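About this split. The held-out portion is used to measure sequence recovery: a designer receives only the structure tokens and must propose an amino acid at every position. Recovery is the fraction of positions where the proposal matches the reference. Here is one held-out target exactly as it appears in the evaluation file.
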């Protein structure tokens, strides 16, 4: 593999002659979105959901991540050098995808050498950030061998006043000796150095401040975190007669030599906030995972039957807990106070290991003009072991049989209804950094989901999806003592709407809404220690995005995005809430030729009205939301 990567660097530096196609100039999340449920294209996010939030839960924390449709236990961040973006699979979009998950699926698309092109991008923002990216593809540097890769340099000057420097690199090769065989190895690395963390505000009986100075850094400049992330692996696709073999082997490593969490605790009827700094050393996550899928398709007139036999597994190790917390002098929330670094004393670490193996079988039936039927069954074997400094905890084991089923019926050529049921064994969220037992991960939890809805092609290029869902899980969160534990059961049920497409030439639209009824039950709720609504939940979320290419100036397009959240629950007892908020983003794209090369100037202003607000990251834990920001990016495809 090292020899392939050496050839790759040579190939990217001397791209072969031939047809030059745009790699990134034509990227446009609004125009490329198939629905409003979530998409990322070259770093731009769009939709109701994302990798950390689908119907109120995190598919990433639950372990429902895919690389090109193959299961991966992703512990490290991904870079745009490696992935073109992601798509959120939920509701009707899961139909036809083997082995769905109750918390939705995040499917990342690996960049592959489809063209001969070198893209160079430079961008800056009014906060002082400066970025440079270079990505290349060589479709065939040697017979049957292509490569893609890139490098990105980022100097962030964050909205909260902190700074960081990031270097990201990635390399992908593709060996395709014939139409039946494809092998894609890849490697990526992200080095985040000198990261001055965003402070967290903890409310102790106090109300959240209604305004503040988002650009004033309230942390400490000596508290510079470091993080190194790797994602590497190989994907294989082989067709033998009527059989198709897909396999992926992945390794994901996240190493944090030092991490800091600035805390501000605001008490009732007080102006000054108590300050402290949490430092943690040697935190790491290391996961080896993979999946093998063997499928066969049988055609019977208008009916197509597909059987998928798959096996997947993971070996996940974590180290955490070598931390200390130092008290600093109290000051008002929005005023910095810089003090010398204290002498942190780090204790011993906790280590845990999860080993899981799953065998699954899926049937997919597709009857042209009638509908689709998916049935699946899985047998999984889960084993988790934790070793604390005080000793080894009892092992956590689970060996359930899980099942899923979904169906869609085409009532007309443009109108279909669907319904689905799935059960899963998923990882529960990890205790946040503000928890007393920070980074602790509870055992895996049983989950179940039912959903149903309709899909209507209103126009040839405009689709409406409407549906309802219900998800049941155990509820983990922070109690009043900031201890992360099981607080009962949680049920998320609601309706969601998606409208996406192009109603007229030159106009692309994406609109969506989620009406969520999130409720908690259990002994803590009955006793009044926990409120009826889970922390962070919002009853209503709305988004609307549009991109319009002006007919008089076809090189120019303008875009707008509006997002609105209703009130959000802040405290576990539901007594503290944040008001509703709305954000407007405006932008433009100007396509041109620089030095006879396709080029794009992208300008966007985020949070145009500069509305001040807070993001809920845990019980009584807030972080300041990004204020107005203007940035410009120039991309040239050489």
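Reference sequence for scoring:
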């Amino acid at each position: 593999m090292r020899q392939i990567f050496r050839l790759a660097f040579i190939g990217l530096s001397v791209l072969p002659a031939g047809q030059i196609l745009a790699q990134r100039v034509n990227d446009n999340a609004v125009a490329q979105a198939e629905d409003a449920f979530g998409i990322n294209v070259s770093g731009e996010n769009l939709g109701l959901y994302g990798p950390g939030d689908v119907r109120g839960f995190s598919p990433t924390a639950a372990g429902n991540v895919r690389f090109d449709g193959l299961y991966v236990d992703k512990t490290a961040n991904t870079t745009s050098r490696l992935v073109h973006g992601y798509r959120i699979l939920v509701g009707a979009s899961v139909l036809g995808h083997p082995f769905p998950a109750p918390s939705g699926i995040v499917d990342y698309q690996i960049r592959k050498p489809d063209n001969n092109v070198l893209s160079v991008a430079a961008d800056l923002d009014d906060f002082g950030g400066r970025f440079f990216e270079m990505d290349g593809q060589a479709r065939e540097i040697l017979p049957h061998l292509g490569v893609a890769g890139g490098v990105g340099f980022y100097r962030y000057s964050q909205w909260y006043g902190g700074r960081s420097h990031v270097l990201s690199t990635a390399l992908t090769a593709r060996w395709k000796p014939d139409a039946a065989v494809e092998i894609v190895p890849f490697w990526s690395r992200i080095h985040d150095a000198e990261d001055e963390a965003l402070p967290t505000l903890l409310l102790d009986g106090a109300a959240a401040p209604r305004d503040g100075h988002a650009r004033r850094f309230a942390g400490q400049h000596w508290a510079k975190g470091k993080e190194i992330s790797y994602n590497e692996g190989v994907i294989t696709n082989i067709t033998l007669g009527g059989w198709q073999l897909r396999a992926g082997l992945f390794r994901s490593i996240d190493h944090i030599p030092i991490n800091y969490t600035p805390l501000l605790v605001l008490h009732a009827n007080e102006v000054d906030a108590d300050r402290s700094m949490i430092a943690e050393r040697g935190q790491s996550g290391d996961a080896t995972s993979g999946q093998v899928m063997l499928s066969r398709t049988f055609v019977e007139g208008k009916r197509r039957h597909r059987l998928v036999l798959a096996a997947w597994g993971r070996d996940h190790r974590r180290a955490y807990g070598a931390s200390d917390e130092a008290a600093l002098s109290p000051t008002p929330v929005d005023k910095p106070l810089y003090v010398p670094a204290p002498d942190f004393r780090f204790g011993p670490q906790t280590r845990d290991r999860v080993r899981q193996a799953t065998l699954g079988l899926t049937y997919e039936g597709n009857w042209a003009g009638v509908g689709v039927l998916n049935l699946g069954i899985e047998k999984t074997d889960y084993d988790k072991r934790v070793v604390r400094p005080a000793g080894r905890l009892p092992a956590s084991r689970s060996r359930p049989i899980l099942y899923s089923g979904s169906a869609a019926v085409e009532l007309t050529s443009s109108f279909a209804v669907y319904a689905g049921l799935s059960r899963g064994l998923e990882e529960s969220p990890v205790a946040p950094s503000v928890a007393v037992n920070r980074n602790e991960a509870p055992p895996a939890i049983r989950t179940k989901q039912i959903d149903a809805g309709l899909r209507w092609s209103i126009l040839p290029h405009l689709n409406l999806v409407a549906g309802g869902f219900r998800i049941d899980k155990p509820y983990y969160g922070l109690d009043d003592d900031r201890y992360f534990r099981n607080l009962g059961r949680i049920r998320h049920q609601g309706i969601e709407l998606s409208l996406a497409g192009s109603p007229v030439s030159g106009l692309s639209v994406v609109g969506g809404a989620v009406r969520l009824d999130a409720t908690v039950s259990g002994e803590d709720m009955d006793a009044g220690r926990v409120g009826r609504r889970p922390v962070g939940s919002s009853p209503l979320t709305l988004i609307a995005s549009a991109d319009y290419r002006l007919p008089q100036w076809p090189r120019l397009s303008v875009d707008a995005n509006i997002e609105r959240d209703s009130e959000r629950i802040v405290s576990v007892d539901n007594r503290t809430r944040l008001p509703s908020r709305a954000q407007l983003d405006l932008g433009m794209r100007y396509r041109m030729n620089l030095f006879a090369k396709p080029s794009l100037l992208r300008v966007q202003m985020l949070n145009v009205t500069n509305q001040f607000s807070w993001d809920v990251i845990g019980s009584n834990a807030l972080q300041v939301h990004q204020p107005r920001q203007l940035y410009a990016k120039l991309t040239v495809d050489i």
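Annotator remark: The chain is about 5% helix and 60% strand.
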